[in-house]
Amino acid sequence: MENIKTRWFETIAKKTNKCYEQPLPPCLEAKANFVDMMVYDGCFVVQLLQNGHLNDFIKHGRHVLNEIQYDLLLLENQLPFFVLLELYRMIKPNPEPQRHICELGAFALKFFERRSLYLPKNTSIRHLLHLVHTTSNPSHLGTQAEVEKEVACCFPKNKNLQSSRNWMPSATELEDAGIHFSGVSIQNMQNQEQGEKNKFEITFDNATKELKIPTLEVDDSTEREFRNYMVHEQFLPLGVPTYFVDYVIFMDELINTGKDVELLRKSKIIDNWLGNDEAVTKLFNKLGDSIYYSREDFHYKNIVIQVNNHCEIKCNIWKWMAKLKKDYFNTPWSPISFLAAFVLLVLTTVQTIFSLLSYYH
Length: 361
Prior knowledge:
361 residues; mainly alpha; 2 domains; two-stranded parallel sheet; transmembrane; transmembrane helix; membrane; DUF247_pln
């Protein structure tokens, strides 16, 4: 029996060891220390998720529970999900097929205050952060092809994202171009596919020129939360959606100055708890630095195309007005001359009409 347990632990330890960057810290280089850490931390996490010993932490203050939830989702603190699953199987042996992963997944999502309508159906979940991240998928993914078809019908096929980083005007520039901003209360946005309130469901109505963005509460924890998910997405395979990265890039394009934040705040898109608009500007500008993202797979690519096309039309109108002013109204006397000529034309027209009326009568 001891030999069986030893072989089992060695197999799990070897598999787990491959999940971490090598070399391991000196304190974990010894196999026994690594196994102890894996079992000790794993049992704590499983028991915490299963039983939710929240009372032990709430008595120290709500902030303690929040810190524990945050620490368990830090990328550097992740235990492989299969380790937690194996430990949970020891606690509750011989359940129905697939019940282990569904139960543990439900416990985890409940602990992190996520709705558990979405549960993993296989062991592809890498760790707790990956599990929670999967609940953030926007609900309109299934209609992405329809959106692309609609955009293709409205705009030429050769229209695409610009190659430079600043490929979309800021919020104030978009407002000047006639685009209206509208914040949507996230409490009213229930993700029908996964039952999760979703901050990523940004829409643009090309008919009304209204850009709807769910309200985002920006506080002291916003930066670290976004940064943790963004780091996780940087390690995802190519082609896998990166919603947090794409959202931050989109907001970073909208926000260049405090005036942009002020506009978004007044439109109820940003609920600012940081004290001033410049702090929000710096937050998104910092989050957008040195982040890799794919333009081809950018989640808001179609919105950017529609917005840019609208701005291009507006820009052409303003260029025509500027050319008219340059060619025909380039001196202070030009408007007066134009007005005099216009009045003369009106008077001549009126005189002609009266002459014709008197002739026929």
